[in-house]
Write a structure and sequence with these properties.
three-stranded antiparallel sheet, 4 helices, 11 strands, Dihydrofolate Reductase, subunit A, alpha/beta, 161 residues, 37% strand
Length: 161
């Protein structure tokens, strides 16, 4: 199963200047719990924003740069190649960035979205979720609190049959 996991704002914002725009510890905790011990696929810019492989996950980096190397990671040169090297995994997670999401949404099985109920200025955006293709299958709405500055929802979309 291929799952896209992302935190997006009301205006589909993902980030600005290759950084997250908001800080939601509840989302980060859920992200870690969900992706732990799985293959995670991401673009080079997303990887470089993290600065190192995520612990206890197999990191697959997609880059057009044939000379690119990253210690402790698998480096490939297309999303298709990334999925091929992950094919024996039961659950594979696509972590972004925007260009990778754009490519992956065509063949993902699940969208695991944290929807941040706020609009942000951004330069990277998640693709529009087409409701004729995706159905909401789970949702948990949460309010801002002392640790999480914005209202947010954990929303799961599954591909319609």
């Amino acid at each position: 199963m291929i799952t896209i996991i992302a935190a997006i704002a009301n205006n589909n914002a993902l980030g600005k200047n290759n950084q997250l725009i908001w800080y939601l510890p509840a989302d980060l905790t859920r992200f870690k719990k969900t992706t732990l011990h799985h293959y995670v696929i991401m673009g080079r810019k997303t990887f470089e924003s993290l600065k190192k492989p995520l612990p206890n996950r197999t990191t697959v980096i997609v880059t057009r740069n044939k000379k690119y190397k990253a210690d402790g990671c698998i480096v490939v040169h297309s999303l298709e190649e990334a999925i091929a090297v992950s094919k024996n995994e039961e659950n594979v997670f696509i972590l972004g960035g925007a260009k990778i999401y754009e490519q992956a949404i065509k063949f993902a099985d699940v969208l695991d979205i944290t929807l941040v109920h706020h609009t942000f200025e951004a330069d990277a955006f998640f693709p529009k979720i087409d409701k004729s293709i995706w159905k909401e299958s789970a949702r948990q709405d949460l309010k801002a609190d002392e640790k999480n500055k914005y209202d947010y929802s954990f929303v799961t979309y599954t591909r319609k049959d």
